Automatic annotation (TrEMBL):
Lineage, uppermost ranks: Bacteria, Bacillati, Actinomycetota, Actinomycetes, Pseudonocardiales
Domain Enoyl reductase (ER): residue ranges: 12-324
Keyword NADP: yes
UniProtKB keywords: NADP
Sections of the chain in a coiled coil: none
Domain of life, per lineage: Bacteria
Keyword Repeat part of the UniProt annotation: no
Protein name as annotated: NADPH:quinone reductase
Source organism: Actinomycetospora chlora
Amino acid sequence: MKAAIYRRTGPAAEVLAVEDVDVPDPGPGEVRVRITGSGVNPTDWKTRAGLTGRDPETFQIPHQDGVGVVDAVGEGVDAVAAGERVWLQLAAFGNRYGTAAEYSVLPAERAMPLPADAPDDLGACLGVPAVTAAHCLLVRGDGREALRDATVLVAGGAGAVGHYAIELAKHAGARVVTTVSSEEKGELARAAGADLVVNYREDGAVDRVREFAGRVDRVVEVALGANLELDLAVAGAGTVIAVYANEPDDPVIPTRRFMVANATISYVLLYGVPAPELAAASAWVSDAARAGALTPLPVTRYALDDIVAAHEAVENGAVGKVVVVP
């Protein structure tokens, strides 16, 4: 099969290549998926660049997310069947066969059924962004029912996680306010269903959020350091700020102000989420997809042979979703 691989970490143009490798067979508890679209996330280029780990022992096929059709199942697998369309998550986590290839082999629990009427673009966009958004909204452990009539602030509503945080929160019955940096991004956030979109670069942004929200129940936060003042302005007893992205410099946390507000910061890194919580977030994403509540991000497609350009696009902050098509 054709696959994008790297044997050492570094710049995309120096380490990524498309090669022919043997089609892997699924082992016990695994499935093999014929990939029809491979979603690229920031975590993919950061891992390839060496920012989050070490060089692979032999080779690594990148990309955690994707969409495709189950081609074969290993011993003991009964959750999905051959011929079933699936969306994938964490395919390359502890596994050399990520989705940037014609086939991927991965644990069966990381392959989730995709509704028959859902386009491939949606399946390729889910995975890390949607499951992260779901976990950020569920992180207090109250369940999705607790979001009904709650107020949610989504920082960066035009990003991949922000997009699905808006759609999932609205699907659960919450009111949603989101911040963006431009009118173009504001249109994306409105299309996702946000009740109020605020350009945080404009004067009076904090006042507009406070006027709408008063106190928020949940913050889905992409940049804690930059947004601390806004988050604290709308935080109160029971507010949970779920932080899913890091920053070049660790922010200084004003502990006393958080104590006075009785607010909580919860850090979210999908790779370390306990299995039951990960399963709950994944199940919610699947339920929402079946209900037609989730939509694809704007997709830019690259051929597998253009894997370097695809990685460089994501590394340079491409809006929407970059999808590699084998």
